[in-house]
Amino acid sequence: MANRGLISAAAVFGCAAAVLAAEPEFPVISAPRAITSGPHDHFLANYFAINAWSADLRYVAVLETDINGRLANAGERITLGLVDTRDGNRFIPVTTTACWNFQEATMFHWLPQEPDTFVFNDVRDGKFVAVIMNW
Predict the structure, then answer these.
(1) Is the dihedral of CA 69, 92, 82, 38 positive or negative?
(2) pLDDT tens digits for 81-129?
(3) Cβ neighbours, 10 Å, residue 12
(4) Bridge-partner residues for 79, per DSSP?
(5) Of 11, 19, 39, 46, which residue has the fewest beta carbons closer than 10 angstroms?
(6) Which helix or strand (DSSP H or E) is residue 33 part of?
(7) Prior bond to 32 cis, omega within 30?
(8) pTM of the shown model
């Protein structure tokens, strides 16, 4: 009886070896380092695939808070700021927002068409809004 549809182990390993040999080496990355420090807690102002870094990689959006060990209460504001990586990782407070949480942050993101402009969520006059701000 013929072994139709079956592939030998040698063929599978041979193909895998050829694919691995063609792939570039995994890039070397630096060790992690903190870009913020106390006395407040900081976390990235983005969510999953939304990039918190400016296009020129100079600024990164972060949230600053003293809320620790509990969930935020409705209406509690948090400071939205930028860390300037070319100026000693200086934290620059920009504004505050009441539309945030520890998982999704403010949904902050830079607008690619305007490199000095970003958008984030807030609550203003009792309504959820998206705020566009020039930096």
Answers:
(1) negative
(2) 999 999 999 999 999 999 998 888 899 999 988 888 999 999 999 999 9
(3) 10
(4) 64, 96
(5) 39
(6) none
(7) no
(8) 0.74
